Give the backbone structure.
Amino acid sequence: MALPSLIDPRKLALQGNLLEGMVDVEDLPRLASAVSAVCGPLQASVQFELDESRATIAHGNAQVTVETICQRCLDPLQIDLRAEFAVQVIWSEEQINRVAANYEPWLVLDKMASLNELLEDEILLALPLVNYHDVGDCTGDTFVPEGEVAQEQAVSDSPFSILQQLKR
Ligand SMILES: [Zn+2]
């Protein structure tokens, strides 16, 4: 089920609502521009509630698979991003001092807030700056066992590869 893009966090917190669902790839433009491809909808689960001081809070998780580039071999690489978060809604920047230490501030200037943007922010924070294949899956490894080198030479002497060289 698709998550609503605009939500009323105060009302959801008063009702203690749990929202679970997906955000479509086209609603994640900043994530899309940060990676080669977003491989499917973002899945999220967000619990809204009032804490003991009646502050509006939301906590949950978000996950999405993206394709990026391995910085060792420059080949495509799929990674699963997962973010866990706990935010406290504030309605103006002056309220930032009221945010408890275990929450991040979520500045909501109108009655309605963008859930997509919150989830996208959280998943962008989970995106590593550089990504690598696991050792063994990566063609850019500096260390190649001798057996594999011998195999590669055998392949390059085959008639098929000579044909390929001629084509170039
Ligand atoms: Zn690699």
The chain has one domain: 6-142. Confidence is low (pLDDT under 50) at residues 150-156. Residues 6-142 form one domain. The chain has five helices and eight strands.
